[in-house]
């Protein structure tokens, strides 16, 4: 998505949001006490690292041999099956190299093809692979995987897109964040078009790009985005209680940019928007960095609870209900 198209995309985003349940709208933007980046534990990354360490210990002195064998099998002409345990091992042993990432991608394609259309019984690898990309800090590879046709359905879990968007945001690839959010809307996983966790990252991206447009002296593109905030039809109680905020940093940046133009009509329009935001108690004195530096510690899964039940094999969230057994089943690598 080109930066020039951002204004239209963001306006569409906020216009569409008004069709959601109005009482809950304010909580999407920034309610008191909320945070706008996600802690590693909330995305299952800490447990991913733990399992990665255990796998590396298990494959001591055998890691490279395993990778070579898998690579040879992926490039053979035989109709080779990809075992669940082998793909797990490949994911947990992968390093940030083109060879390792390519191996995981090819194995994932074969695995997805094997279980195409099978809804139950197959291990759900989408979140696990996306955690691998996040851990290895590979945003471009993660985005490419999401758009790979052979992996259609592989990442159809809300948490997979959440992790991908968090990684892209962390890497300051803001346009890609919005591209992925559009994919989320198209997919409507579990019937949800605007999942809260993905939406939170999209809104944070929106603020970043508003400021970027102002710094580029493109106030004409930024003003419609600010105007869309005061046009959202919120109950009077939500506005008066201060549940709906825009950071002061964005307002001040827009004000400076508008004054630079010297255009009286543009300055007057901005002053009108600013006045409306002030009257509605909608400007926060916190900076964006202050908000974004406070990590979200928990992950809410209400939107896709039924789907998550079918994905327990891929979940790293300890419930404390039963002990976890890390059994080692045979994979293709075990057969010599």
TrEMBL record:
Domain of life, per lineage: Eukaryota
An individual GO BP term: regulation of mRNA processing
InterPro entries: PTCD2
GO CC entries: mitochondrion
Example GO molecular function: RNA binding
TM annotation in the entry: none
Name of the protein: Pentatricopeptide repeat-containing protein 2, mitochondrial
């Amino acid at each position: 998505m080109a930066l020039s198209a951002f204004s239209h995309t963001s306006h569409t985003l906020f216009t569409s949001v008004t069709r959601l349940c109005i009482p809950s709208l304010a909580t999407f933007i920034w309610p008191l006490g909320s945070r706008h980046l996600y802690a590693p534990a909330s995305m299952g990354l800490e447990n991913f690292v733990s399992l990665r360490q255990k796998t590396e210990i298990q494959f001591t002195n055998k890691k490279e041999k395993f990778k070579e064998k898998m690579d040879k099998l992926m490039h053979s002409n035989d109709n080779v099956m990809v075992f669940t345990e082998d793909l797990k091992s490949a994911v947990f042993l992968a390093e940030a190299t083109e060879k390792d990432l390519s191996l995981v991608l090819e194995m994932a394609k074969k695995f997805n093809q094997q279980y195409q259309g099978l809804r139950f019984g197959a291990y759900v690898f989408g979140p696990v692979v996306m955690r691998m990309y996040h851990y290895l800090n590979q945003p471009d590879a993660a985005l490419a995987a999401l758009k790979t046709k052979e992996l259609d359905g592989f990442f159809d879990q809300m948490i997979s897109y959440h992790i991908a968007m968090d990684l892209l945001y962390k890497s300051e690839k803001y346009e890609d964040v919005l591209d992925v959010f559009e994919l989320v809307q198209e997919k409507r996983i579990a019937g949800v078009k605007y999942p809260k966790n993905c939406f939170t990252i999209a809104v944070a991206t929106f603020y970043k790009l508003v400021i970027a447009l102002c710094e580029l002296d493109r106030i004409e593109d930024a003003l419609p985005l600010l105007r869309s905030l005061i046009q959202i039809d919120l109950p009077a109680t939500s506005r008066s209680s201060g549940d709906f905020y825009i950071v002061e940093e964005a307002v001040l940046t827009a004000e400076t940019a508008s004054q630079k133009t010297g255009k009286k009509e543009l300055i007057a329009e901005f002053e009108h928007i600013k006045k409306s935001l002030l009257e509605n108690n909608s400007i926060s004195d916190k900076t964006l960095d202050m908000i974004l530096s406070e990590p979200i510690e928990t992950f809410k899964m209400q939107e896709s609870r039924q789907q998550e039940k079918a994905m327990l094999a891929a979940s790293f969230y300890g419930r404390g209900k039963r002990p976890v057994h890390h059994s080692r089943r045979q994979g293709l690598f075990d057969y010599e």
